[in-house]
Amino acid sequence: MQVQYCFETMNKSCEKNNWSNNIRIPMYVFMISTILATMAGNLAVIISIAHFKQLHTPTNYLILSMATVDFLLGCFVMPYSMVRSVENCWYFGEIFCKIHTGTDIMLSTASIFHLSFISVDRYYAVCDPLRYNSRINSFTVLAMIITSWVLPAIFAFGMIFLELNIKGSESYFYNEVSCVGGCFVFFSETSGIVSSMLSFFIPGIVMICIYGKIYIIARRQARSIKDSTNQIQFRIDLNVKQNGSRCKERKAAKTLGTIMGVFLICWSPFFFSTATGPFMSYSIPPIVIDAFVWIGYLNSTFNPMVYAFFYMWFRRALKMILFGKVFHFDSSRMILYYE
């Protein structure tokens, strides 16, 4: 089969994928479906939390911010990645390539920052409920959200525009990887380890430890609740109220723990390959790396599905959005769940 190039008239142009329509069309259908599902699902989460006053809680504000991250990923990153993945060509210019790559890394990193702060929120809610309201207040949540956006932005765009990601492997990159019409997510040995540690491994380990402790405390509380069933009658109502609150907090922790697990499963292949690929002489095929990127993107698609599965309030809010009831007078005060 004759080799085709992204830009036939330019020297050192990248080779274009010679896939038949039997491969190209299903890829476009899958990726477009993923993009639309990501945008629609996360937009529903954003509208639900922003519109209904009952959902204006610290945890939900963090979820709202994280849904915004996922929505922006679906809007501004995934469509261009789709063309690059199917065609193996970048038609949008070198400067926009850097903007796209920086935005991709920023939003991916911002997701795990949000999850890290959500795990801290759940820790205080379950393990230290008496001091939860004093520690996780509006100012604290705002600081968490700003940190989750600003630090990943500085890290991602600083690394890409200063070309720190190729530092130490410049010769290999420009001689073996770089070509006209390409936009590659490339990391040297040092930058691959640093990026993976800061964006994934360190926050991931911290979250696993926090949720492990939450699980242990929750089990201890469950045993305490079971033992308390034989206490005297006048304390029953108080125990029921306290135990109901604890059950709600544990369910929220379980839900967000599932979200964290989905994140780790989706992004682990990409970050493992990013950290180890440079030490294996970049022997992992580009098509495999590209597949790992899209598996990571699927995390942004799955998050709203997790909310729909676990949260009754989201299913009710989604129903009201779909039927246009959010446009009714005073709909923002609708009770979606009972305490």
TrEMBL record:
Q: List GO molecular-function terms, semicolon-separated.
A: trace-amine receptor activity
* Taxonomy of the source species: Eukaryota, Metazoa, Chordata, Craniata, Vertebrata
What parts of the sequence cross the membrane?
25-49, 61-82, 139-161, 200-218, 255-272, 292-314
What name is this protein filed under? Trace amine-associated receptor 1
Domain G-protein coupled receptors family 1 profile: where?
41-307
**Main location as per UniProt:** membrane
Q: How does it sit in the membrane?
A: Multi-pass membrane protein
Q: Which InterPro entries match?
A: GPCR_Rhodpsn, GPCR_Rhodpsn_7TM, TAAR, TAAR1, TAAR_fam
Family that this chain belongs to: Belongs to the G-protein coupled receptor 1 family.
Keywords, alphabetical: Cell membrane, Disulfide bond, Endoplasmic reticulum, G-protein coupled receptor, Glycoprotein, Membrane, Receptor, Transducer, Transmembrane, Transmembrane helix
